[in-house]
Amino acid sequence: MKRICIFCGSSPGTRPAYAKAAMELGRTLVETGIDLVYGGAGVGLMGILARSVLDAGGRVTGVIPRLLAEKEVACTRLEDLRIVESMHERKALMAELSNGFIALPGGIGTIEEFVEVLTWLQLGIHGKPCGILNVDGYYDRLLGFFDHMVEEGFIRSENRDAILVDADPALLLMKMSLYSPPKVDKAAWALELSNA
Ligand code: AMP
Q1: Ligand 1: distance of its center to the CA of 161 in Å?
Q2: What average pLDDT does range 85-114 have in this prediction?
Q3: Domains, the chain, ranges and CATH?
Q4: Which phi and psi angles does 130 have, rounded to 5°?
Q5: pLDDT at 90 > cutoff 80
Q6: Going by CA atoms, what residue is nearest to atom 7 of ligand 1?
Q7: Mean predicted confidence (pLDDT) in 87-109
């Protein structure tokens, strides 16, 4: 994996564990020779993550919509900051540049971005690994909800199992490097169930 896109909060969260995990993930990326792609902000966990990669000597590409950059929230230390016109363009470019995706703790924006790449994975639009860094069990309830979706017949278990999870950055990256996408056609499955 050459580049990984990381989605995370534009806020730091209440627990020190979140910032600590962002710093550790940043350092681990650099040790593993992986470049960071992220949303380009200097605030919250996003800023903490980018600075930890830069401080460790790694490479960072930020992708930020003009409106957000103009509000002076772009990280000022980035050599590679791509300014785009919309959130849709931002997500498309981040996905195109990256060989995998990780969600650190975050809010609505983080979930939206991560769930979009999961949707594209289950539709076969890409076959890149999608991992959750489950810091202090932050994502336990979301993972439980994914299980509920399987139980209720809205997600195939193969697609649920494709979501890689670990609390340790190095172990998560290892799982991602060994990943191969599920051979499940979600669209055909939905049609099959509808016709049953
Ligand atoms: P959230 O998880 O809601 O904090 O949002 C994180 C995502 O929302 C980021 O990846 C950005 O796409 C976007 N976002 C929200 N606020 C900002 C901000 N102040 N600067 C840059 N991006 C932001």
Answers
A1: 27
A2: 97
A3: 3-195 (3.40.50.450)
A4: -120, 115
A5: yes
A6: 109
A7: 98
